[in-house]
Design brief:
Helices cover 30% and strands 25% of the residues. The protein is α/β, with parallel strands linked by helices.
Length: 549
């Protein structure tokens, strides 16, 4: 196989013409082994799926919703939809949600938004999807195996549709918004990542990320398949059950590239001890891409301290920044350079300098993209000044699907992608602080919820067990801490941190069972949804004053 390194002109379906019998995807099985699917076999499955979709009446440009785990069937469903001239849309399966009622509301919103011509799902998701689809009045879902039964593959794929992907935002600020990604935007984003990371068929990669999220889908799976290198695929729950299995894969398979949010690094640090790593080597790793949420510099340092003695180079830790509206990747640190931290200029209104936390640099814009920092009135700000991050250039989404209303603050327009994220530039590198709407002005400076959460994590409160909400409630500046399965010492820590940085603001706490914090399908707290429920008195748990006792 002859893939071209980082080729921005490589078509989304070109790999079907070059499908290798030697390279492909390896899926973790329940026997601690791997099931191999060559690209030749996957290619045949793609064309079979395309034929089945066409035979089922799916027309050009219509939407195919994929409600599947990471699997050969998902690969076939995604590229099969493209090969049928249709538009794929990945939707989280039920496993991604702990509560059935939350999942049904989420999935119903997404399906109502896209109105798919076909819904293809896992066997384990079929019954749940049948109920949701019946309530919405859309066609009955079909399990992947049933879809392709007794179907002969197409001889050739049809041209891809104009919209090659409908993907949804995380929904951390409310309902997820559907984003239309053109074939050109998707192709150029994958090509840009290939150039940035040096992707090539001889450099294997591994992932446990869910394929319904843009980081797992565009950032990993599509990048791997279109480029044509070996991909070692675990389920998210494989990683949660045994992060050591994932680390063994990195070592034994000489993995060059992997990716995860900050949470993944933290989870490994909590679950893996140095003695567990005896005999493992991580010197082949050249890119551990870290994105999707704010990156904690202490976590980066601790992760390198854990794996460094076993060969992990510090320069292999590669922070990055992106968004669904930008297809995915916007900025990234080159492998080997080594991450740095920065502080904004004095008086720029930054949360991180107030809260005493350094901000990790997320690299420079990928080719064909520009990043600017603007003030509230849209004026461009100089280096070191905090404002809203605005993105322009290739691979920006064509627009939103359906209702464009959102509390997120993110928008697409003539000025480009206004991300709703706060950050600053320093010598061309982007430093990301947090969501503009998740903050509170104290003594003339903004404090962001993510900055305070970082301080809580550094004081021993685990990630995914606490969320901070900031805003004005009943005309009073207010900070709310939501604990999941609280421990007594966490109340004291939270009181100390919030009292120090929020001045005279009212401090409240909410305590829910472990796993009870409402999160998106990618694990981000749905801060504004919880905030609105707390303010309206409709939240399922009672609020109470936050005290040190």
């Amino acid at each position: 196989m002859t893939g071209t390194l980082g080729n921005p002109d490589r078509g989304l379906l070109d790999w079907l013409d070059e499908a290798s019998t030697e390279h492909g995807l390896y899926y973790a099985n329940h026997d601690d082994g791997w099931d191999f699917w060559s690209y030749r076999d996957l290619g045949r499955l793609v064309l079979t799926t395309a034929a089945a979709l066409r035979a089922g009446g799916v027309g050009r440009g219509e939407v195919v919703a994929l409600v599947q785990r990471s699997s050969p069937g998902f690969v076939a469903g995604f590229f099969g939809a493209l090969a049928a001239g249709a538009t794929p849309c990945a939707i989280a399966p039920p496993f991604a949600y702990q509560r059935a009622d939350e999942y049904e509301v989420h999935a119903a919103h997404l399906l109502r938004t896209v109105r798919p011509a076909a819904v293809v799902c896992d066997d384990e998701s079929l019954e749940r999807l049948r109920k949701i689809a019946a309530d919405l009045g859309i066609g009955e879902p079909v399990a992947f195996g049933q879809l392709i039964a007794d179907t002969e593959p197409l001889e050739r794929p049809l041209p891809p549709p104009e919209t090659a992907l409908l993907q949804f935002t995380s929904g951390s600020s409310g309902f997820s918004r559907g984003v239309r990604i053109s074939a050109e935007a998707l192709r150029t984003n994958i090509g840009g990542m290939g150039t940035w990371l040096g992707c090539a068929p001889h450099r294997p990669a591994a992932s446990w990320l869910p394929v319904h999220h843009d980081m797992g889908l565009v950032g990993f799976l599509l990048n791997v398949v279109v480029t044509g290198f070996d991909g070692w695929m675990l389920q998210p729950d494989d990683f949660i059950r045994s992060p050591l299995r994932y680390l063994r894969c990195l070592s034994e398979r000489r993995i060059v590239m992997t990716a995860m949010p900050n949470f993944g690094l933290s989870y490994i640090l909590r679950r893996v001890r140095p003695a567990d790593l005896e005999g493992l080597r991580f010197d082949a790793l050249r890119a551990v891409i870290i994105g999707a949420e704010r990156v904690d510099p202490r976590v980066l340092s601790d992760f390198h301290a854990l794996l460094g003695p076993y060969g992990l180079d510090r320069g292999a830790l590669v922070p990055a920044y992106g968004s669904a509206e930008a297809t995915l990747a916007v900025t990234g640190l080159p492998p080997g350079e080594g991450w740095t931290t920065g502080q904004p200029d004095e008086g720029s209104g930054d949360a991180s300098s107030l809260a005493g936390t350094a901000v990790v640099g997320c690299g420079r814009p990928l080719p064909g993209r520009t990043v600017t920092i603007v003030s509230e009135d849209g004026g461009r700000l100089p280096d070191g000044r905090v404002g809203e991050i605005v993105v322009n250039g290739v691979s920006i989404a064509s627009g939103y699907l359906g209702d464009t209303g959102s509390a997120s603050g993110t928008s697409l327009g003539e000025e480009g992608l206004r991300t709703g994220d706060a950050g600053f530039l320093r010598d061309g590198q982007l430093f990301v602080i947090g969501r503009l709407g998740d903050g509170l002005k104290v003594s003339g400076k903004m404090v962001f919820a993510e900055s305070l959460e970082t301080l809580l994590h550094q004081r021993g409160v685990p990630e995914r067990r606490v969320a901070v909400l900031l805003g004005v409630r009943d005309a009073t500046p207010t900070g709310v801490v939501v604990f999941a399965g609280v421990r007594p010492e966490w109340r004291r820590i939270a009181h100390e941190v919030l009292s120090e940085w929020l001045g005279d603001a009212a401090l409240l706490s909410v305590e829910v069972p472990q796993g009870g914090i409402a999160v998106t399908s990618s694990g981000k707290p749905r801060r504004r949804v919880i905030w609105q429920a707390v303010c309206s008195g409709t939240y399922e748990a009672a609020t109470q004053p936050l005290t040190a006792d």
